[in-house]
Amino acid sequence: MKFRSLASIALGAALTLSMAACGGSGAGSGDDAESVPAGDAESITIGVAMPTQTSERWIADGQAVKEGLEALGYTVDLQFANDDIPTQTQQIDQMITQGEKLLIIASIDGTALTSQLEAAAAAGIKVIAYDRLIRNSANVDFYVTFDNYKVGVAQANSLLYGLKLTDKEGKPAADAPAGPFNIELFAGSADDNNATFFFNGAMDTLQPYIDAGTLQVKSGQTDFATCAIMRWSQEGAQTRMENLLTSTYGGNGEGLAGVLSPFDGISRGIITALQGVGLGPNLAQGLPVVTGQDAEIASVKLINDDVQFSTVFKDTRKLADQAVIAAQAYLEDKQPTANDTETYENGVKVVPSYLLEVDTVNKEDITPLLVESGYYTAAQVEAGQ
Ligand code: BGC
Questions:
Q1: For residue 81, what are the contacts with CB-CB under 8 A and spacing of at least 6?
Q2: Which of 191, 293, 297 has most ligand 1 atoms within 8 Å of CB, for mutation?
């Protein structure tokens, strides 16, 4: 297991959970939590539906949720759906018919699960949306995620920092270059509610610079739909970047200073396209500034090698802990504690949410944030796997 040992996961979950039971911070109920007697817990199966194993973050998420729940004695049915919507709906249908007591779901298409959730509600099964909001359903009980708008703000701030327009904290740089800088924009999968939040957070941050003429989106492609990459595909991103290089940058990338990217897989597709026309190969040799998200190990290595500029680190261990805390609250007939009851309107209702903070990672942050916290070893960063 890449991220941390089983024993430390179990210990981490147990610690966080006991903190929550003592009224510590987290999505747990504020009441004194009585734990479910061990014998009872084992007979309770919890369905965990994750979107795909093609991106390592979801493997880590799935594993961490499973191990956290198992540490409390529950039985876990963990399923991955290869980014295929019918596979995911089928998996969830099956979890319901098998009598699983609670569902934790990271959806592929946030709008595709309405009938599954109706069946879950009819069977008295609570549903926790994991990382991605499930839309168009009254039957999403709780949502655990990161502050998705702030993720977009962090990505845009990092782009501004990479172009030396601001300092690392986002304050205008005293000796900021006048520009104008040419940039291009990428967004995530349009069927993922998060993608809009990321893009809006980023655009609200970049727009003043675009209005002032300091930044120019030379292709003119600034609307979400045009910038969106279906299923967050690396290949899709590479193709779009290649097309932009041909249509707008003379085929050799001349004059392109930076690219807003919402996900490390997309970032790697973009970087491949940029290097493919002779840019770089690294930042010091003229590779445009490219942002990212998820601190995927392949991108962490690229950051360490001065190729990708940054990523946004979402500590999946913390998110998994929150999902486990919320699940335990429901299984004890309690209400998980939300820290946001306004933001996540899913088309039918506002879903009570527990939001976590994120960190931006540049090269100098790899050791303190990723290695010292035990997320990766130094050897993994070196090897990129
Ligand atoms: C997640 C991101 C991830 C993306 C692609 C989004 O829903 O919030 O962390 O980069 O999906 O997997």
A1: 49, 50, 51, 52, 87, 88, 91, 108
A2: 293
Q: Nearest CA to 179 among 159, 205, 199, 200?
A: 159
Rounded to whole angstroms, what are the CA distances from 266 to 38, 288, 296? 44, 15, 11
**C-beta of 155 in contact with ligand 1 (< 6 A):** no
**Torsion region of 223: left, alpha or beta (phi above 0 gives left; psi -120 to 50 gives alpha):** beta
User: Pairing state of beta strands 102-105 and 126-130?
Assistant: parallel
pLDDT of residue 271 exceeding 90, the answer is: yes
Ordered by where they begin, the domains of the chain are 6-140+316-356 (3.40.50.2300), 148-313 (3.40.50.2300)
Is residue 356 a contact partner of residue 322, using CB atoms and an 8 Å limit?
A: yes
Tell the residue number behind the tokens 């200073």, with chain if given. Answer: 257
Q: What token pair was written down for 182? A: 């040419």
User: What pLDDT is stored for residue 27 in this prediction?
Assistant: 60
Q: Which atom of ligand 1 is nearest to the CA of 193?
A: 7
Looking at residue 124, its pLDDT comes to 97
Query: What percent of the chain lies above the pLDDT cut of 70?
Result: 90
CA distance linking residue 284 with residue 280, whole number of Å: 8
CA atoms of 235 and 241, how far apart (whole Å): 10
